[in-house]
Amino acid sequence: MYHDEILDRTRSVSIVVPCYNEAESLPHLLSKLDAAVADLAAHGIEAEAILVDDGSHDGSPTILRDATGTRPYLTAIGLARNFGQTAALSAGFDAARSQVVVPLDGDLQNDPADVRSLVDKLDQGYDVVSGWRRHRQDTLIARKIPSWLANVLISAASGVRLHDYGCTLKAYRRSVLRGIHLYGEMHRFIPVYAAHRGARVAEVEVSHHPRQHGQSKYGLGRVPNVVLDLLLSQMLWKYGTKPMHIFGKFGLLSMLASLLFFAMMVWYKFWGEKDFVETPLPLLVVMAFLVGCLSILMGLLAEITMRTYYEASQTATYVVRDICRSGQVSEGPAAPPLANSQQVGRPD
Predict the structure, then answer these.
(1) CA distance 8 to 113
(2) pTM for this entry
């Protein structure tokens, strides 16, 4: 019965595609989407495609507008300016109406034909299925090596072992995206957020094609962003609901250092034959003590802020997977529409 319920929940799919200056690629992408949607329909899966134009200044907006006139499954969203891939994905997620959301890149390197294999994997009881570009068609130095290092770092730090965090092609149950609001370039960490909330994460190999049109929008400059976003995501996950722990520990450590500096200062005064003004220790004592006090006060303020947030928004600090009564398993509370995704800014 539970497996049948999962199958019912994956009978509709929203394909979300962010696009930026992809006028040359869009006609080919639309043809591939036509075939993918037809294939999904042949297998009993209703599909829609949401293409988000991220402030393109080529012919992309016109192509998308014209395409919606002949493709009932297609919705085109135009952003006021270039907000970035994560923001474009958020716009598509908010507009999605299906029980499963599948983002993919608009540069034809991801293949829409792989959407069904991701959905089939979801049917096996998973909540997130990540694409793995095992045979990636990109340059070694600028793309493959930085991506490999990022995948190793993210997997080690998060405990969620995936080969390819950077692959946009993933499948999410709608309930997984509830409570996740994306900033910066945080879209790559959705599987981490989901796993921390109890989601079951899997990985399948997907096709990857060389870029045929236009130029890549990403390079080595993204590496620092990935590292900083990883640090942010881990800090929010570990201390988001208890900020006093991180600020308080640092504050206590700083005050302990202040006591150590004070002991050294006294030792030098009476046994080291050095006056207080001959060493920087008095200044270090004062600075370390003040930093410790300020850190503890910041922890108190952060704690008050988080308690106010949870109580005012009535956001729970837990996620219910299912409920069992009289031997019958039912799903947890249904996910509300994603259109108000600004309610939550991090995993609970």
Answers:
(1) 21
(2) 0.70
